[in-house]
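To: structure desk
From: M.T.
Subject: fold request, one chain
Message: Could you run this one when you get a chance? Sequence is below, nothing fancy, just the single chain.
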Amino acid sequence: QVQLVESGGGLVQPGGSLRLSCIASGSIFSSYVMGWYRQAPGKQRELVATMASGGSTNYADSVKGRFTISRDNAKNTVSLRMNNLKPEDTAVYYCNARVAGTAVSYWGQGTQVTVSS
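Reply: Done. Structure tokens follow.
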């Protein structure tokens, strides 16, 4: 079992930056594929970025060049640095931990990010 707690959301103006953090507990963090997903009102949850235990990353096209995912296996944390935020980035952002090669997946409670002037 894995417990995930996100932090760092908030209100930011277009062009601004935010850093989301997620701390994991309860299992072997380093073996999980860690990721960030988001869900805007009326839309399906979508992948933002993932990072495998070996460091390989995957980003949604809409955030490439603006968002950076990182993880610290020693501290059981995964972060998402978001630059040049746009109103369309407004969503609830969820931290995810997935056992590589399986469908076993855990979710945090989500943190709201609002980009508005």
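Reply (cont.): The mean pLDDT is 94. Let me know if you need anything else for the meeting.
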